[in-house]
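Ops channel
N.P.: pipeline sanity check, posting one input/output pair.
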């Protein structure tokens, strides 16, 4: 006799209560009600568990039984298929993108600087994990990754978009090498085919992994100390080289920790306020001893009333061993890339770079200059640079100036 909902609600006798087709409800002496299905496969009697009544209703249990019967009719064992599905589900949990990406970062950290590893972790946490982190690697499609990197590009960070794509592909290569996935679906994703071409002339720029070497060489630079201090302040402020070379002491407000550059000295002909981190103020203090009260912060070593020549900073970089690897203007790209990848506000970064906002509505908001955000951003950047050398960065000329006053 088949079961009914009314009968199930009033069952009190422990034992198996059959419904047909091998389906039965097992009532335990303690009151537990479990759906089971008895079937034969390969000459052996087997059992399937369908859940607990009433969470699994009579209708649901019958549907599960019928599905199991169809599996048997195809010649498969429903019990083994269920075990395989459970194993696959457990595998997918272990191969969620976030879990594997963090494992990859940990694996690579042995060859990366701590700062580089931290930047990559922050990039994933800001841009990738919220969209893809909880999904199994095998269930993420190339179109999902393409949509993600295009979203990053659309917000005005094409360099970050390209790096995110390359790092996602690296995670998949890592997973394939460890047999966490059977194929790499991201193999054919190419930045040039996904992202818009950028019609810009790229200036050579250091990467963050080059910073320890650069800062160490700058600290030991034996050339003109004014030139070295100019490079140091250029790195700390992300100013354009021309704007830095034109810097006047009259524009420096030490009490407010700001440099206020007038419109005529700016490329975009708009006044620009530059927050000065503690380290930037230290460079200026050292440079004040070297410039001997002249109008220019960084006067030419050959003509005190003239600013440093356009090639002076790049020549110094070449003398330090970075010819063909870096230009003075490239420090802006380095700052932008690191700050964006570490999740800082894009508007604050763009305003610090004194980029013109093409959207007129957003441009109106730029009048606020994001000063509070930029103060935090530039102090973070200065601390980041210190960390690249273990906090031992000393402004060039400070030691000489101190020695000269002794």
């Amino acid at each position: 006799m088949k079961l009914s909902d009314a009968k199930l609600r009033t069952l009190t006798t422990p034992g198996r209560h059959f419904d047909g087709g091998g389906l039965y409800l097992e009532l335990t002496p303690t009151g537990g009600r479990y759906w089971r299905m008895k079937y034969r496969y390969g000459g052996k009697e087997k059992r399937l568990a369908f859940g607990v009544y009433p969470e699994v209703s009579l209708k649901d249990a019958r549907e599960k039984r019928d599905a199991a019967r169809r599996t048997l009719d195809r010649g498969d064992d429903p019990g083994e298929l269920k075990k395989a599905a459970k194993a696959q589900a457990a595998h997918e949990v272990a191969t969620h993108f976030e879990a594997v990406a963090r494992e990859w970062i940990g694996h690579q950290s042995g060859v990366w600087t701590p700062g580089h590893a931290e930047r990559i972790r922050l990039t994933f946490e800001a841009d990738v994990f919220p969209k893809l982190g909880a999904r199994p690697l095998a269930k993420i499609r190339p179109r999902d990754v393409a949509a993600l990197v295009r979203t990053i590009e659309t917000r005005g960070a094409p360099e970050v978009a390209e790096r995110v794509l390359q790092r996602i592909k690296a995670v998949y290569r890592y997973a394939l090498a460890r047999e966490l996935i059977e194929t790499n679906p991201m193999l054919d994703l190419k930045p040039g085919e996904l992202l818009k071409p950028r019609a810009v002339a790229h200036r050579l720029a250091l990467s963050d992994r080059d910073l320890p070497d650069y800062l160490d060489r700058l600290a030991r630079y034996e050339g003109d100390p004014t030139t070295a201090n100019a490079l140091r302040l250029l790195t700390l402020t992300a100013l354009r080289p021309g704007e830095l070379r034109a810097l006047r002491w009259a524009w420096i407000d030490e009490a407010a920790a700001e440099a206020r550059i007038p419109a005529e000295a700016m490329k975009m002909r708009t006044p620009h306020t530059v927050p000065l981190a503690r380290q930037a103020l230290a460079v200026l203090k050292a440079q004040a001893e070297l410039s001997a009260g002249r109008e220019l912060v960084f006067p030419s070593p050959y003509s005190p009333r003239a600013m440093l020549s356009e090639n002076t900073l790049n020549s110094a970089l070449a003398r330090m061993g970075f010819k063909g690897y870096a230009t003075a203007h490239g420090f802006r790209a380095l700052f932008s890339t690191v700050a964006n990848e570490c999740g800082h506000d894009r508007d604050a970064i763009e305003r610090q770079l004194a980029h013109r906002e093409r959207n007129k509505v957003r441009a109106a908001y730029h009048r606020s200059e994001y000063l509070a955000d930029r103060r935090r951003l530039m102090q973070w950047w200065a601390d980041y640079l210190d960390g690249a050398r273990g906090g031992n960065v000393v402004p060039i000329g400070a030691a000489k100036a101190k020695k000269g006053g002794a």
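N.P.: looks fine end to end. The chain has a mean pLDDT of 84.
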